[in-house]
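Two proteins follow. First one:
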Amino acid sequence: MKQLHFDIVSKARGTTADHIRYIMRKGEFAERDDFVGWNYGNMPSWAWPDPEAFFLTSDKYERVNSPAFIAVTFSLPNCLSTEQNVRLASKIMDAVARGMPYMFAVHEVTAFQSGVRHPHVHGMLSGRVDDGVDRSPEQTFRRYNNKHPARGGCKKVGCGIRPAEIKNSTIEMRRIIAETINDELYAYGFDDRVDHRPLREQGIAREPVPYMRASEFREMRESQSGCAHNRKHHPEGGAPWMPPEPWSI
């Protein structure tokens, strides 16, 4: 069994535009070469052709004390092709969203030394589940009206739940991701499997392997390039630097 990398965090208003530019590799991130695909689902009719507009509208009209969106990040199997992983990412996001509006981007970073691919997903989720009521973009993010739903915004899934429920929901999301990945690995004939449980629950007595982010990959590349330059021009060849490469599925 291999370990699943998974991260989830709520994002406040004012962060959405930067996050979209980052995951979609736009603006200052456009020169990066690791963007390989994206998709979206469960959008209301007004946002169906443009999911970015949905999250940008959330950033503008969502209540101040409520997150504009939930960001999730998880690893994908590097034994699958890029196209297979993009399709797998769609299956995973649709499964964990459970009707919630979402969009995601798949990035595929290649390790500098070994050439190993490290595909992963950056997903965005909103608790504003569409209930079939025709609302304007602004009204979608208003407070829900229990007595007269058409007069208020969409009901927001996850609001007001206890910390223990949040923890259980996160564990369940990890389980869904791992099971969806394993089903896909089985379908393509691979023996590898991932496990969403902590190492302690798996009976494995070792420290978790730290996950390396894309920014750390870039720093590695720059440092490696600098070392190669030093070895070429330094009279004694320069000092080699061999950082550990991150583990990936």
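Second one, unrelated to the first:
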Amino acid sequence: MNVRFGEGERVYLREATVADAGLLAEWKNDPLVRRMALGPGPRTTREAEERDLRRTLERSGDLYLILVARDTGEPVGYVRVDWLDAGHRFAWLRFALGRRRGRGLARDGLSCLLGSLFAGGAARVEAEVFGFNERSLRLLQGLGFRREGRKRRAHFDGEAYHDVVVLGLLPGEFRPGVESGRSPAG
């Protein structure tokens, strides 16, 4: 059974299940997602995603969600929240879209998720983005995230080193309805 976590205007978020492993592997092996979010490591497999899903689903409170387009019912991406503390007040965010990029679906899903996290008492959400991923940076900044730091030359893409931008969002900074660009990974 797929439990809905939340609903936006164009997507809804449902809990990921082990049955989503093949789809997650497909998305994570997409060349654009690998470049913008993962790096040059080995390609992921369905089996590796199944193991990761099982571990994540067993941990108390971590969220692994699938973004589903409301118009077609098609799964279009994922978002993960890892809690950095036992009280579930400090979260680390990861996300990517498989297909249907550039249509505001990630913005809608992240807006829904962030609203739920803050309504549930989250005190902070943070994310990291490779410095060259301008679209994801604009997406997150459009939601209210602020640049808090830069890890210089912290990511090697197989050819060159790149900076990693550290972003943070506090409840009073969240802007769910602001348009400010779209992300290729969203």
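SUMMARY FIELD: The first strand starts at residue 4 and ends at 7. The CA atoms of residues 111 and 176 lie 5 Å apart.
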